[in-house]
Amino acid sequence: MRVVIDTNVLISAFLRPNSKPAQALEYVLRRGRLVMSEATLGELMAVLYRKKFDCYTTDAYQRAFIIRLTNLATMVRILRPIKVCRDPDDNKFIETVYYGLATHI
Q1: 3-state DSSP assignment of residue 59
Q2: For residue 22, which of 2, 3, 13, 37 is within the disulfide window of CB 3.0 to 4.6 Å?
Q3: 3-class DSSP assignment, residue 33
Q4: Strands (DSSP E) along 38-103, which ranges?
């Protein structure tokens, strides 16, 4: 099972370790393979490091979360852009699914 997880789900998993998104992430990390691209990782980092999250966490915890995901994820190289989504920001996830041969999103 190769899975691409949306940034909002990863942020929810990060902020609420006992939540359903956190359980889903842990399931993927234990039984499957998380698939990410430079673009999806970049979006996660940009969102995670927003000032509004400072009151919920520490820099060290944020870094540890990112390091854990990057160490466990399969990083995918995007060879060509895919433009199929109404929201152009979502194309990076379709690209990651396609080039990462993901079975789930």
Answers
A1: helix
A2: 13
A3: strand
A4: 74-76
